[in-house]
């Protein structure tokens, strides 16, 4: 009978055997860079162990490291229903351009990345004087809501890589509940010791991107279609979300963003790392009545003055480089914009690598 103990024991043994075979297969293929050669998972970070795998195994040689936020990834392209979005990202075009020049590149950009996340990522990269880093700064990284407190770190699994003083500034207040801590610890332990789990967590972002809700919404739109009213509502919701990034506000020198940026640049300058920093293109026209022009210009000037202290680091302000026709929204470029941006970056880097 199907309810017999021997049947269920057989099912259990079979499932365990399949999991064991899959675990062995993953442990053999990840160090060969198989998954990273065949799947573009740029724009996502799911765990610290997977991130460490990516840095170790994604490129055969030390690459040009690309650091930034969602401008490097596919989220905006996916949200605007661009077909095959991961083949039209800034990362894809730029890595292709650099590869043609003989320079492999690895993107560690991810949705939501802030300056504290990039400072923590630098611990994993451990760049040397022979390395080159391209850092794309976005205005949202310096927004008031990220100046202090737990919102100042986008990926909590990176907290241990931050200096103790910054850890205290981004710690949850009040502290996480016991249930939340247990859930986070369980996930971290599974990602640390179960390679199959952490790689499938990474791979699932290819199909559930940028979220499971968006995945099912996309399927529904394919069945019933969409209309202009829905698009207008979505655009207004986005404007409300990003309005705070461009509100009247001057970036404080002791806030988390500039503090983390200073520590990051100090580390690179001390090691003689070759660094190019770009203030990434913005689309003021999208924000119209939301953009506070005086604050916007003062913050651009402040950042340029801040960067002048680092003579060995090349900095350029590209915030006004492209016309609004190349943008989806406030900072995410359309495919043709990404391609042009990548060519310009590759041309700039080509003379410095």
Question: Can you characterise this structure?
Answer:
- This protein is α/β, with parallel strands linked by helices and 353 residues long.
- It has a single domain (33-350), classed as SGNH hydrolase (Rossmann fold), CATH 3.40.50.
- Helix content is 50%, strand content 7%.
- It contains 15 helices and 5 strands.
- The protein has a 5-stranded parallel sheet, with helices on both faces.
- It is globular and about 75 Å long.
- The model has no long low-confidence stretch (mean pLDDT 89).
SSE order and pairing:
Layout lengths: L4 H25 L4 H5 L9 H10 L6 E4 L7 H5 L10 H11 L4 E3 L7 H11 L6 E6 L26 H7 L7 H16 L1 H9 L8 H13 L3 H15 L13 H16 L2 E6 L4 H4 L5 H15 L6 E4 L17 H16 L3
Parallel strand pairs: 1-2, 1-3, 3-4, 4-5
Helix pairs in contact: 5-15, 6-12, 8-9
Short description:
This protein is an alpha/beta fold.
The low-confidence runs, each spanning 5 or more residues with pLDDT under 50, are none
How large is the radius of gyration? 22 Å
Beta percentage is 5-15%
Largest sheet: 5 strands, parallel
* The top level CATH class name: Alpha Beta
CATH superfamily grouping? SGNH hydrolase
What is the approximate shape? globular
Major sheet strand order = 2-1-3-4-5
Q: Which fold name fills CATH's third level, the topology?
A: Rossmann fold
């Amino acid at each position: 009978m199907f309810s017999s103990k021997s049947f269920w024991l057989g099912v259990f043994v079979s499932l365990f055997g399949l999991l064991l075979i899959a675990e062995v297969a993953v442990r053999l293929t990840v160090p060969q860079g198989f998954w990273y050669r065949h799947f573009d998972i740029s724009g996502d970070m799911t765990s610290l162990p997977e991130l460490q795998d990516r840095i170790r195994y994604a490129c055969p040689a030390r690459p040009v490291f690309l650091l930034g936020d969602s401008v490097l990834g596919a989220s905006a392209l996916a949200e605007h229903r661009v077909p095959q979005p991961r083949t039209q990202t800034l990362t894809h075009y730029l890595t292709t351009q650099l590869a043609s020049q003989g320079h492999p590149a690895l993107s560690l950009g991810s949705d939501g990345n802030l300056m504290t996340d990039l400072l923590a990522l630098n611990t994993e990269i451990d760049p040397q004087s022979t390395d080159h880093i391209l850092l794309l700064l976005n205005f949202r990284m310096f927004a008031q809501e990220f100046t202090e407190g737990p919102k100042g770190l986008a990926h909590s699994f990176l907290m241990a890589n931050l200096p103790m003083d910054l850890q205290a500034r981004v710690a949850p207040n009040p502290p996480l509940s016991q249930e939340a801590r247990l859930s986070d610890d369980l996930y971290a332990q599974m990602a640390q010791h179960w390679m199959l789990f952490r790689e499938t967590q990474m791979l699932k972002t290819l199909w559930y991107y940028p979220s499971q809700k968006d995945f099912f919404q996309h399927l529904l739109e394919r069945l019933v279609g969409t209309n202009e009213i829905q698009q207008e509502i979505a655009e207004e919701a986005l404007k409300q979300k990003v309005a705070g990034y461009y509100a009247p506000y001057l970036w404080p020198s002791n806030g988390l963003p500039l503090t983390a940026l200073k520590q990051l640049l100090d580390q690179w300058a001390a090691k003689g790392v070759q660094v190019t920093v770009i203030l990434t293109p913005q689309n003021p026209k999208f924000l119209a009545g939301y953009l506070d022009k005086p604050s916007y210009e003062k913050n651009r000037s402040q950042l340029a003055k801040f960067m002048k202290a680092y003579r060995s680091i090349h900095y350029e302000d590209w915030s006004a480089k492209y016309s609004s026709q190349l943008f989806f929204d406030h900072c995410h470029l359309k495919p043709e914009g990404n391609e042009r941006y990548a060519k310009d970056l590759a041309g700039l880097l080509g003379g410095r690598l």
